[in-house]
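Progress note, sequence design subtask.
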C-alpha cells in the first residue's frame, strides 16, 4: 500500500466513523484545544439529522423571512421543498424547474435550497460538518453570515465547491470540483465601501462528490480563523478587520455565473437523485469550557 493510498484510506475511514459527542473531530497532532480547556457541544447549532424532518427550532429552510431576503442567484432559485431529512442525512436536491420563474428582472430555471441556523454562532466556537457534495454543476457549501444592516456584513465561507466543472467554467475554477476552499469576506454595506476578500484553498484527494469530508473552522478570535479538513489543520486566515459579529450557519446549494449550468441542463437535469443531492451527515458546533479537574 503506497503512502498516498494509505493516507486517503485512513482519512476516509476516520471521517466516516461514528463519533461520540465528546469533542470535535481532530486527527492526532492537530488538536488545538488550549491547555486546561475542553470542548462542549452547542445544542442549538448541533444536529445529527437522524429524524425524518428538519428541526424547525434549529434550522430555517424557507429562504425568505426572519430577517433573510436572499432566495437564490439566477438561474438557481432556493426552495424549501428541496430539503429532506432521511437516511441519517439532511439532503438538498437540485433539479430543473418544471416552468421558469420570473422575479423582477431575473429568470430562474433551476432550483436548489438554503438552510440557515435559527440561532447565531459566536466568536471562539468551532464549527464542523460532514458533507458529501452533489455531482452537478451547482454548489455544495458550509458557511456563516451576519444578519442585519446595522452591523458589519461578514461572511465566513468554511467550504465552497461545485460537484462538476462546467465546460464553460472560468479558467480559475477548473479544479473547483476537487477543492477545500475558504473565504473571509467583508461585504459592502454602510460600514464598508468595498468588498474585502481573503481566501485559501487546497485540492482534496478525491472529487468532492465522491465521498464525505469533514469541513471545519475554529473562529478562534476576532483576529484568527483556523480551517480544518478531515480533522487536519490546513490553513489559517487573519481577517482584515475585527471578526467579532455573531453569525448564522448557512448551507446553500446554488448556481454560479463562473460555473454555468450547460444549455442542455447538464447533470442538474440528467443526474440521478443521488448525483443531484448534497448530503449533510451532521453539523456540530462546540464551545470551550474549563476542563474537569482530572483532565487539566
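Output:
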Amino acid at each position: 500500500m503506497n503512502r498516498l493510498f494509505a493516507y486517503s484510506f485512513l482519512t476516509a475511514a476516520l471521517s466516516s466513523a461514528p463519533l461520540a459527542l465528546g469533542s470535535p473531530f481532530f486527527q492526532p497532532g492537530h488538536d488545538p484545544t488550549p491547555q486546561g480547556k475542553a470542548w462542549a457541544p452547542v445544542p442549538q447549532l448541533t444536529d445529527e439529522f437522524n429524524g425524518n424532518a428538519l428541526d424547525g427550532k434549529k434550522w430555517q429552510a424557507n429562504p425568505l423571512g426572519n430577517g433573510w431576503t436572499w432566495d437564490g442567484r439566477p438561474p438557481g432559485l432556493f426552495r424549501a421543498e428541496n430539503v429532506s431529512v432521511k437516511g441519517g442525512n439532511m439532503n438538498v436536491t437540485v433539479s430543473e424547474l418544471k416552468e421558469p420563474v420570473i422575479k423582477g428582472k431575473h429568470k430562474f430555471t433551476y432550483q436548489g435550497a438554503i438552510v440557515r441556523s435559527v440561532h447565531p454562532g459566536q466568536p471562539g466556537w468551532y464549527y464542523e460538518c460532514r458533507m458529501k457534495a452533489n455531482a452537478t454543476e451547482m454548489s455544495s457549501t458550509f458557511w456563516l453570515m451576519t444578519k442585519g444592516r446595522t452591523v458589519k456584513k461578514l461572511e465566513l465561507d468554511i467550504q465552497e465547491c461545485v460537484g462538476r466543472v462546467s465546460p464553460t467554467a472560468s479558467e480559475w475554477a477548473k479544479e473547483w470540483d476537487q477543492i477545500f476552499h475558504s473565504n473571509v469576506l467583508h461585504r459592502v454595506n454602510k460600514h464598508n465601501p468595498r468588498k474585502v476578500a481573503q481566501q485559501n484553498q487546497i485540492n482534496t484527494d478525491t472529487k468532492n462528490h465522491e465521498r464525505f469530508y469533514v469541513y471545519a473552522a475554529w473562529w478562534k478570535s476576532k483576529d484568527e480563523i483556523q480551517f480544518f479538513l478531515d480533522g487536519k489543520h490546513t490553513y489559517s486566515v487573519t481577517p482584515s478587520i475585527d471578526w467579532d459579529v455573531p453569525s448564522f450557519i448557512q448551507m446553500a446549494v446554488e448556481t454560479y455565473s463562473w460555473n454555468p449550468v450547460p444549455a442542455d441542463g447538464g447533470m442538474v437535469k440528467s443526474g440521478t437523485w443521488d448525483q443531484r443531492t448534497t448530503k449533510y451527515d451532521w453539523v456540530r458546533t462546540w464551545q470551550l469550557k474549563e476542563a474537569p479537574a482530572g483532565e487539566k
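The chain has two helices and 17 strands. Work on this subtask will continue into the next period as scheduled.
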